[in-house]
Design a protein that fits this description.
Elements lengths: L5 E3 L7 E6 L6 E7 L2 H18 L5 E7 L4 H16 L8
Parallel strand pairs: 3-4
Antiparallel strand pairs: 1-2, 2-4
Helix pairs in contact: 1-2
Length: 94
């Protein structure tokens, strides 16, 4: 799937900024910057990975700057960035 640079989210408390870029390397590379990465880093990466895989994005470079976002916010921001990066509408029936 072809992707372009895109982002979603903010750097406000309780949010996460997700930036997606094309990558030549296979798989998803997630660069996480979070003050709670020690405690929740694996879960944050899992939510991002599961969301992108569910949308058919299997090769990309992702930068995530977390400010204490909940899983639902991480999923929403990742989905929004992926829709912008791929042009694939998650609500279409195709």
């Amino acid at each position: 799937m072809e992707i372009k640079n895109a982002f979603a989210g903010t750097l406000e408390s309780g949010d996460i900024l997700i930036q997606i870029e094309p990558s030549d390397a296979p798989g998803l590379k997630i660069d996480l910057d979070s003050t709670v990465a020690y405690q929740f880093g694996d879960q944050i990466r899992k939510v991002i990975t599961d969301t992108l895989n569910g949308m058919g994005v299997s090769q990309a470079y992702v930068r995530a700057t977390d400010k204490g976002a909940l899983d639902c916010t991480i999923r929403a921001r990742t989905t929004a960035a992926a829709v912008r990066a791929t042009g694939k509408d998650v609500w279409s029936e195709e």
